[in-house]
Write a structure and sequence with these properties.
alpha+beta, Alpha-Beta Plaits, binds uracil, Structural Genomics Hypothetical 15.5 Kd Protein In mrcA-pckA Intergenic Region, Chain A, 4-stranded antiparallel sheet, 22% helix, 9-stranded mixed sheet, 239 residues, 3 domains
Length: 239
């Protein structure tokens, strides 16, 4: 938690004295309610601070939505192969960003990158059960029996017990939407292979409240909007 006058003045837009005046004039709001005491504190990662109704970004962290292309590793560095970090400009790479969870080298789609370790920990904790939705193209066609098997919780050949997962055929069933609440190694591929429907291509569409921006081509990225960040911060473990 940080003092609100410090957070606002650290943006460089106002001095502490000016922030005090803004507060006195009732122009500063925290999560919608006026702030009158400069010493009041807020969490810079999640607070919604506005001045005259305009959102002021005080977050000390960076949150990036990336459309991961095939062929890159979801890692921060690798001796031999390119990683998703190579898609970012040097100034961002120097911040120590890392991917929140991994996509396989050949998997495409939504990847969140941040330097906010606490948020990443919360989203990835086995207890948090954040929904991840994948579009899978398979050999053969998925059917009702596959849907029921995933809904019941598959047990894979190596004994891994999967949590109940969603499966919705798309079109003729040669593609499907798979919703996981966990993220084990190669999980979608292993689950569908166990049903005799090997995955030909895999693409992540969403993770918790974040949906891949259709305007982002593979390899492109953008900062999360304030609204997206708010939703992520409010993501609670769903047991
Ligand atoms: N499941 C997989 O099999 N691969 C991924 O990249 C993500 C989920």
């Amino acid at each position: 938690m940080e003092r609100i006058d410090k957070l606002l003045s650290s943006t460089g837009r106002w001095s502490r004295r000016e922030v005090k005046d803004l507060m006195r004039q009732g122009r500063v709001r925290l999560d919608g309610r006026p702030v009158s005491r400069p010493e009041e504190k807020a969490d810079p990662a999640s607070a919604c601070l506005t001045v005259d109704g305009d959102r002021v970004d005080c977050s000390p962290y960076v949150y990036i939505m990336l459309h991961k292309p095939a062929g890159l590793l979801s890692a921060t560095e690798d001796r031999d192969q390119p990683t998703v970090l190579d898609l970012l400009p040097p100034a961002l790479r120097r911040r120590g960003l890392f991917p929140v969870g991994r996509l396989d080298k050949d998997t495409t789609g939504l990847l969140l990158l941040t330097d906010d370790g606490a948020l990443a920990h919360r989203l990835l904790s086995p207890r948090s059960h954040v929904d991840k939705v994948y579009l899978a193209q398979v050999e053969g066609r998925v059917d009702q029996a596959d849907r029921e098997a995933l809904a019941a919780g598959l047990v894979l050949g190596d004994g891994l017990r999967c949590l109940p997962a969603g499966l919705e055929p798309v079109g003729d069933g040669s593609s499907c939407l798979v919703t996981l609440r966990e993220g084990k190694y190669h999980q979608v591929k292993r689950m569908l292979a166990a049903r005799g429907k090997p995955v030909l291509a895999l693409h992540r569409l969403s993770m918790g409240p974040l949906t891949l921006d259709e305007g982002l081509n593979p390899g492109n990225w953008r900062l999360l909007t304030a609204g997206e960040r708010d939703k992520l911060m409010r993501t609670e473990p769903s047991l």
